């Protein structure tokens, strides 16, 4: 069986989308497309050597039911990056409803995406949670940062959970760590957890540059939200900032990043809503971008 697909990405994190609307019901009823077998399809197409290669896979139904699978074929719940990619496709294909897009997951729970513009969509990442203290983080939280020491250098970091576990090297570090060295230290410090190491550098009160390798279904959104959270608690950024993802060849220069970001997929805007104590939620907005479309052969 040959199926058409789209590959989209946000901040370099790629996903496969199958739109099942154009397919005839007789084809959908075949065993290869049965919901019980979609994990196999996801695993095959996400394989980076024998498939297309991606962090995850999505199946979009006629009624806007959207189901997510990781690259290992495991059904995924929190899938912020892929949701922003799906929103871009849904908007372009006329599935939006006014100022929002409503998706349903496999359990018929509603997932809302606000439409801010043609290539600008917003979702909530929830409240930030401290991995170290196991408490909810607010801008008033103290001692968010801990210190890693290696080779005479000290690195301050904040450990935040926002759908993914993110370890952010915070501003004001004494000494210098490369991203590779910091990643090694992070994985040693959290040996039993899946974590995303991030180096965040505030450029202005409203701009943060990050070095990271956002993997997983929510890697880019969680990275951006955690970078803002840690920077806000350090007093170096405002509650609303643009997080830009540094790529190879950018040399840490915002102008170089903006010049390459022709489809606005390399940046994520983050807003920490904490005007009142009972409100504590971080929102991210951005857009997935098309990489290519193609066809994939799946065994019957």
From TrEMBL:
Top-level division of the source organism's lineage: Bacteria
Protein name according to UniProt: Diaminopimelate epimerase
Species, as recorded: Candidatus Avitreponema avistercoris
